[in-house]
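task queued by scheduler; priority normal; single chain, no ligands, no partner chains; default sampling; output format set to structure tokens
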Amino acid sequence: MEFQRRCGYKNGTVVWVQVSETGACRMNSTLTRWAGLILPAAVLVAGCSKPKPAEEIGLGSLAGKTYSHEYFNFRLAFPDDWYIMSEAEQKELMEAGKRAASSGNTGMEAALKAAETRTLSLVSAFEHPPGTPVPSNPTIIIMADRVAHAPGIKSGADYLTHMQTGLRQSAIPVQLQPIERNQQLGSLTMDALPVEIRGLQTVHQRHYAMRVNDYVLLI
């Protein structure tokens, strides 16, 4: 399986080894605004989330270049030379993604704003610091979305189906592939949505999702 060429699993930790040319998150350093692609999936299911996600499940922890989250029961070891964004940088990255997705659509802007109360940006890591003049910049972004108000979302595939709809309604020039179910990502069994963003350069992404109790984990 393609993922096995990119990642390994050792002692309970997902270890990132390599990103292929058609890999999970091949992203040009000038196109980091597309990282906000995850958000449109959250806006299509109406409802509010009274508990604050950060207080309910926490943001996880980062020890050196190893990220872990107790609620989702996983660890992710980034290569030592990767760049991990600060909380402020992650917030700006998500804002850029929302602007790209809405592109002046006030309805989409309002929906994305409302979704902020349910979503958590947990960690964002880049092979090179954003802005580095390189042909491509492999990226891993991990988020969580509180979906307790949407009992119809029973799996990662259900969530990714909403994401497909959101991407089609957005201003992002995407080519969507069929959802791939039961993909093994280290210790996690997740569903995956391959996406191509077509512009001056084609950007290849894979969005992984799985439901854990009241939340969907997104990688």
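post-processing summary
- Residues 185 and 201 are 27 Å apart (CA to CA).
- DSSP finds six helices and 14 strands in the chain.
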